[in-house]
Design goal:
Helices cover 51% and strands 8% of the residues. By secondary structure, the protein is mainly alpha-helical. It has 2 domains: 123 residues, no CATH class; 50 residues, no CATH class. It has a 3-stranded parallel sheet with strand order 1-2-3, covered by helices on one side. α4 runs antiparallel to α5.
């Protein structure tokens, strides 16, 4: 999806969060398809996809460099891209920058547990006790996210209609957004996240 009024303006590539939420990363939005091989849902493949999109924008708009912005999961891919292809970008914008996903999970778990204790929410406390502290499997991560919602967190099962309407205009695109909110994190794998965290800490702090 490309938006703008003047093609002479600087080009901003926005890398959305997720993984799996719209707009159009592999397996999301208009790129969603059940036929996409599961073994292509790897960080390396996502990085290659991003580089291809970058090259396409540079060539299409005849600009030597573009600006790249990442949000949440998108900061992971964008950080890698800026490090690997610094000559293609004039600036990087990180929104909700990921530095250590595992540490973020631990902080989130402890926050939910503390809030549940303050609210005397025994159901949430029981579920948290069952899964224990991170690292979590995909199923355990979803349990923690649901617990977060029950104690007043911000996790939502479905995207707000207002957000979807801003991003998409057709039934197919809206359906693809919702379908890929069910993206399987196990496709990427916990070991890839652990390696990713080490790399990101190096990239961000050096």
């Amino acid at each position: 999806m490309i938006r703008g009024k003047n093609i002479q303006n600087p080009i901003l590539l926005f890398v959305h969060g997720g993984p799996g939420q719209a707009e159009d990363q592999r397996g999301a939005g208009l790129s969603y398809s059940k036929s996409i091989p599961k073994d292509t849902f790897t960080i390396d493949v996502f990085r290659a996809d991003l580089n291809e999109v970058t090259d396409y924008l540079i060539q299409r708009f005849n600009q030597p460099k573009i600006i790249i912005a990442g949000h949440s999961w998108g900061t992971v891919l964008a950080t890698y891209s800026v490090k690997d292809y610094s000559d293609k970008y004039s600036a990087y914008i990180g929104i909700g920058q990921v530095v250590s996903s595992m540490e973020a999970e631990r902080i989130s778990y402890r926050y939910v547990k503390n809030e549940a204790e303050l609210q005397n929410n025994k159901r949430v406390l029981r579920e948290l006790q069952k899964i224990g502290e991170p690292p979590h499997s995909e199923r355990e991560a979803l349990i923690r996210a649901n617990c977060q919602g029950r104690i007043g967190g911000i996790t939502k099962k479905n995207p707000p209609k207002s957000i979807v309407s801003l991003l998409r205009n057709t039934t197919r695109e809206d359906l693809n957004y919702r379908n890929k909110c069910n993206f399987k994190l196990d496709y990427i794998g916990i070991e890839n996240y652990q390696g990713m965290d080490k790399t990101l800490r190096w990239y961000v702090f050096t």
